[in-house]
Amino acid sequence: xxxxxxxxxxxxxxxxxxxxxxxxxxxxxxxxxxxxxxxxxxxxxxxxxxxxxxxxxxxxxxxxxxxxxxxxxxxxxxxxxxxxxxxxxxxxxxxxxxxxxxxxxxxxxxxxxxxxxxxxxxxxxxxxxxxxxxxxxxxxxxxxxxxxxxxxxxxxxxxxxxxxxxxxxxxxxxxxxxxxxxxxxxxxxxxxxxxxxxxxxxxxxxxxxxxxxxxxxxx
Length: 219
What we know:
Blueprint: E1 14-18, H1 25-37, E2 42-45, H2 52-68, E3 73-76, H3 79-85, E4 89-92, H4 99-106, E5 111-117, H5 120-128, E6 133-136, H6 154-162, E7 167-170, H7 178-183, E8 188-191, H8 193-196, H9 201-214
């Protein structure tokens, strides 16, 4: 089954797993397969400590795994790596390559996501330049990143009112606080630590996924 779409942003829904910094590729694949088996709709490969060779090895292996579940693999930051392995897209921060340049390089069929922190204006600019989804956060305290911007919950409501692409919540999300984000309009939630470090990764992913089927967005 292909994960390609004429409207790539429509694929951004539900649980969005973000990989931790793991040097052990076999362990990374094992954990990610549990995340996928539990219902994750997207996977983002993010490893800030890996060298170029390890990133290529891990991203290539993850892409093949994701294909078996018909789930898009998004590469964090590295446009050239995403293009080299033919990943399904790339996620960019404000200090990464310009979105318009990435869109021209990757083409129209790839998913481009943008971190917009606590700024709807930044999100609007990202969409104008070709982003398929925008991510806001951190909403809660997170161990994955340091010196993060704190975003208010109501930015989800405000974003949904003016933006025409999926809105992703990120930062310190767990099974206790995720209902709040979904109720306030998050189309997807990006989760790393509370997912990949769970005692039962697959069941944790199942529970995250279930919330998207059982909780209604409050207008």
